[in-house]
Amino acid sequence: MEPMKRALEADLSAWIIGDDPRPVLIQGARRVGKTFLAERCGARLFGRGFAKVDFQTDLERASAIFDGPTDDIERIVARISEYKRTPLHPATSLILLDEVQLCEKALNSLRFFAQSPWRVVATGSLLGVAVRQRRLPFPSDVKHVRMYPLTFEEFLWALGEEAMANDIRSHCENCDPYLLHDRANEYFQRYLTVGGMPKAVRSYRDTGSFDEVREAHEEIDITFTADMTDPDNGISAAAAKRIWESLPKQLLRASTKKFKYSEVMRGGRRTQLLEPLEWLEAAGVILRNNLTCDTVAPLSPFNDDEGSFFKEYICDTGLMFHKFGIEAELFLDPKLKSLLSGDFRGALAENSVMQALRANGLSTFYWMPNEKVGQGEVDFVFQDRAARVVPVEVKSGRNVKARSLSRLISDGRADVAYLLSEGDFAETADRDTGCTVKHLPLYAAFCIGQ
Asked: Is domain 8-146 classified as CATH 3.40.50.300?
């Protein structure tokens, strides 16, 4: 089988062969494919000139490379060459520092590589957590790249459906109905159950077995849980695990899905749960979406004394589906699926859209006209580079009534808004403001903001 292509590969390859002297630091949750991406680019572009230093599998000897001053780059490269038993040259070599957060001096050395002729890529899992305990400065002059699980577009690529992915992008532009809309929606339903963690996608692509997918999800869930309950983290392991387990239930709530500390544990309070919550966010396994009441840019989080107006999503829709404990075959059967609650389908849809928007690098909020009155809400809102406010409303079915969206369009004078549902592509104009409302299928969320 062909390796799974990632959208970031083109950008990373362009940097490697370009003139930017900065090292690249690829960050993201564990198991999202950071190492695979770097190895694929390095091996393809440099062949035997690609040198990987893996701190996860050989920490003691790999760390010894960086004994001594971290600004002595030529000495460090000479030791890497000796360690890998291969000659290295700036014009023909690429160095990968894999899981660099495990060696603080290696992480710190990135700032000095920026002043050298050497090309360096580093990957970091749990980097947002590890750097809290650093003694050396976090490296400056580094190009940061954030990686997430596969988007639906990348999922289609993995299944050999590049043409469908391209067609979806075309229809997002012209909003004409899509001849293969039902087929695309079937693929999207599978994506909701499989998600975008590379191991789960590979299992599904290679075997077609949802049993294999479940095993992959279970292994990843266990890995995440082990990370968050590690005693060296300095957080309450019990609280972190309870937050992780509570999220599906919180997103299933019929009313606002605002995160509630009291639903994590009996008598749960912000003071008890803030630190483990921030740890999970820093580790990349959950995604925060703050409330804003703003209607014009710049958007900012609503600020209350308790900091209690936000939602939390799981980093991958497949992991979320797994945590509900429902058979994929049941969900994918149209007759049986109708027996499941609308709240369940809505939670999956909303989580998948959050995942898509974050993968596109968008800083999102959810919107309410007044946090106390609570007269409806819009699921997502972001500002584009032209400082325009862009609302995104999510409907899990084909009912596309969206009063809150209409209110935000009116109050904020948005130029364009998105309404996502199971319906086909269409385009309308708001009769009061003239705002263009793009009606997109849920599977097209990966096109927004690009």
From this structure: yes
